[in-house]
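Exercise 3.2. Students should predict the tertiary structure of the chain below and write it as structure tokens, then compare their answer with the key that follows.

Predict this chain's 3D structure.
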Amino acid sequence: MRFGRAFRVVIGKMIEKGEFKERLILRVLYSGLFIVALVFVWNIGLLTASDETEVITRLNITQALPIITDIEINYGDVINLTEGSHYQVLCNATIVNYNGLGDFSMVNATLFRTNGSSGTNFGLFQAEDNNSNYQMANCSYDMTLDTFTYGWNCTFNVSYHAFNGSWNCTVFANNSLNTPVNATNSSEIIPLFAINVTDVVDLGDLSVYQTSGVHSVNVTNWGNMPINLTLWGYGGEDNATGYNLSFMCPDGAGTNISIGYMRWELRDDNGWVNMTNLTIGPILIDNVTIEKQSTDVNIWNTTYWRLYVPPNPFGACNGTLVYEATLGGTN
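Answer key:
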């Protein structure tokens, strides 16, 4: 009885002092942390306990599309056309075909202008013409570069009057899958100023005080730009010795013909006195622009010439007329 009563007294004092309450709270907290730790360790065990197995997958691709890896135009250089003729532009394509060379069913190309004014025919799928669109139906196999890699040549004979500016070469390739692929590269056609002029103006046999008949000189635009013309001349074949002369004659000084006696005009019905004197330096021929040709039919300008023979040259005389082409507009 005394022990029980003593115990109750001790507990009562502990409660009165708050010690029992604090110890109880601590025991509850420790028990909670212990349970959380057990759960955490248990979950870690579940996460790390696994059995990994790999499965190998296999596939054999028996056909693939061709791949155009590179296109080179004109060996990487800009394109300088040939006056009055055609220039061969090469469009070289490097094409990968995992099905082999014999699997190619088609390789072709189009060379076309990509800039121009409204209405100009410069698109990839426009009709072929010599100014802005060239089409190559069958490019030629050139060489095997590597396993499954082949070189193809697409050749275009480009006319001298093709537009200047930016041009693209687009190559199309197809194989047994019958799904064509294409790739494009670009280059530039440089402006070409060129003329073709009548080789010789032969005034024939004349005597002193005589005026020649009318003789014509045709100037053809053999470039790809509209042009204006300047004109001048000298005696003989060298400007230094023939300066201020229209003809040099075999008997030398005193028998040569001064520059003002050779005259020109744009019409053939003017008398010699109404014509324009040949000059020692370039003068612009007014109101004359020779357009760029759009077909292979020549476009030219004609000047008409006459000579009055003053006293007192003799023998076989010769001189030089100089025509120069300058920019006459844009395309």
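Discussion points: Residues 1-12 have pLDDT under 50 and may be disordered. Residues 2-47 form one domain.
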